[in-house]
Design a protein that fits this description.
Low-confidence stretches: 1-12, 21-26
Oligomer: single chain
Strand content: 15-25%
Largest sheet: 8 strands, mixed
Radius of gyration: 19 Å
Order of helices and strands: HHHEHEHEEHEHHEHHHHEE
Structural class: alpha/beta
Shape: globular
Length: 311
C-alpha cells in the first residue's frame, strides 16, 4: 500500500471537504504494523464475508442514524468507513450542498466504496486512504462519525483528538463501539468453543490493534474523550440481532475466518487444521440454537457514544 492521499478530489473541493492538498505527503505510516495487518490479512477475509459483516454492522448504524443531528449542507467526516455504506448514507443526508469524506486506512475497502458511490450518482462524497491518528485535517467539519472503527486505534487518545481537530468549534462526534463481551455472543461464543481444543492466542501474535472490546468501559472511554479535548460525553445502548450465516455451514465458516474465533483458529495453524472436523462439529452444536428459517441470528450490543468539540 502506497500510503498516499487517494480519492480523486479536485483542487477546488479541498476547502469544502477539509482534505488538505498533499500530493507528495505520506498519510499512512509505512511501518505501522496494525495497518499492515489489516491490509495483508484482514481485508481479503472481510471482502469475502462482506455480505455478512456489512449486514450485521448496518443493524447498529440503522438504529443510530435517525438520531444523528445532520442538516442539509453539513460537512461530515466518516472515520474507518470501510466499504463506504455509512459514508454513502451520510452523503445522501447532507445533500449536494454538503460534503462527506470517508476515511479508511485500507485501500481494498475504499475501492468498493468508490464503486458504490459512483453507481449511486453521488458527487458530494470523497474517499481518502489515510491514518486518522496523524492526518492534518482542517477544522471545517460539522460532524464526525465512526462505526466500529475507533476500537482499533493504536493510540485511542491520539485518534480521538485528531478527529476533534477535524471539527469546527461546537461540532459533534458520534462513534459506535461494541459493549460487553457477554452481550456479544456473535463475537465471543465461538472463541470459547475453540479454546476447548486450541491454545490461546499468544500476546506477541500479529494483530489489527487493540480489538473490538477495547472501548467497553464507559469510564475509561469518557476519560479518553476528556483527554482528547471533548466535552458532553454521552452513552446510549444499542441492541440488535445480527445475521452470521445463511445456514450452519456458512455460520461456522464465517466464525473460523473472522473475529476472535478466527484469530484463535489462524494462530493455531497446523494444529487447527488437524482437528478441523472436530472444531466444525463443536461449533455447529453450539450455534444450532441460533438457526432460524432466515439464517443464523445472534445477539449483539453496542454503545452509541457522542461528544462535542467545545467552542
Amino acid at each position: 500500500m502506497g500510503g498516499l492521499v487517494t480519492g480523486g478530489v479536485q483542487d477546488g473541493n479541498f476547502e469544502k471537504t477539509g482534505i488538505l492538498s498533499m500530493n507528495t505527503a505520506r498519510t499512512i505510516d509505512a511501518t505501522n504494523q496494525y495497518i499492515d495487518f489489516w491490509n495483508a490479512v484482514l481485508v481479503p477475509k472481510f471482502n469475502t464475508w462482506r455480505h455478512i459483516l456489512a449486514g450485521g454492522l448496518q443493524q447498529h448504524s440503522a438504529k443510530v442514524f435517525p438520531a444523528l443531528p445532520l442538516r442539509v449542507g453539513d460537512r461530515v467526516l466518516d472515520v474507518g468507513c470501510g466499504w463506504g455504506d455509512t459514508a454513502i448514507e451520510l452523503a445522501r443526508r447532507v445533500g449536494s450542498a454538503g460534503s462527506v469524506v470517508g476515511l479508511d486506512c485500507c485501500g481494498g475497502f475504499l475501492e468498493a466504496g468508490r464503486a458504490d458511490a459512483k453507481a449511486a450518482g453521488l458527487t458530494n462524497l470523497t474517499f481518502l486512504e489515510a491514518d486518522v491518528q496523524t492526518y492534518p485535517f482542517k477544522a471545517v467539519h460539522d460532524f464526525c462519525f465512526s462505526r466500529f472503527g475507533t476500537q482499533f486505534f493504536e493510540n485511542p487518545v491520539a485518534g480521538l483528538r485528531n478527529m476533534r481537530l477535524a471539527l469546527r468549534p461546537g461540532g459533534l462526534m458520534t462513534m459506535i463501539v461494541w459493549r460487553e463481551r457477554a452481550d456479544n455472543p456473535w463475537l465471543t461464543l465461538s472463541k470459547e468453543v475453540l479454546l476447548r481444543y486450541l491454545p490461546a492466542v499468544k500476546e506477541d501474535a500479529a494483530t489489527c490493534g487493540p480489538g473490538p472490546f477495547s472501548m467497553i468501559d464507559t469510564d475509561a472511554v469518557t476519560k479518553q474523550l476528556q483527554i482528547a479535548g471533548y466535552t458532553d460525553a454521552r452513552f446510549e445502548r444499542i441492541d440488535a440481532e445480527v445475521f452470521v450465516g445463511r445456514d450452519l455451514d456458512e455460520a461456522v465458516a464465517f466464525q473460523l475466518a473472522i473475529g476472535p474465533a478466527g484469530e484463535v483458529y489462524r494462530e493455531a495453524g497446523e494444529q487447527a487444521e488437524r482437528c478441523h472436523d472436530q472444531l466444525v462439529a463443536a461449533l455447529k452444536a453450539e450455534l444450532k440454537e441460533f438457526a432460524r428459517p432466515e439464517g443464523v441470528m445472534m445477539s449483539s450490543s453496542s454503545w452509541m457514544v457522542t461528544a462535542r468539540n467545545p467552542g
